[in-house]
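Throughout this review, each integer encodes one residue's backbone shape. One record appears below.

===
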Amino acid sequence: MATVKITQTGSPIRRTKDQRATLIGLGLNKMHRTVELNDTPEVRGMIRKVQHMVSVEG
């Protein structure tokens, strides 16, 4: 299965609770952390919700 590399580039300070929870759900909770997840529709939806705080490769 294809994977996608997600790096947190923005701070969750002064963001809504659901955006903070989405970052934690993706495995990100600190700046410049990178995770590699399977490229599924669920993950793509989570990325879309916090697209202003993450960068995506792959």
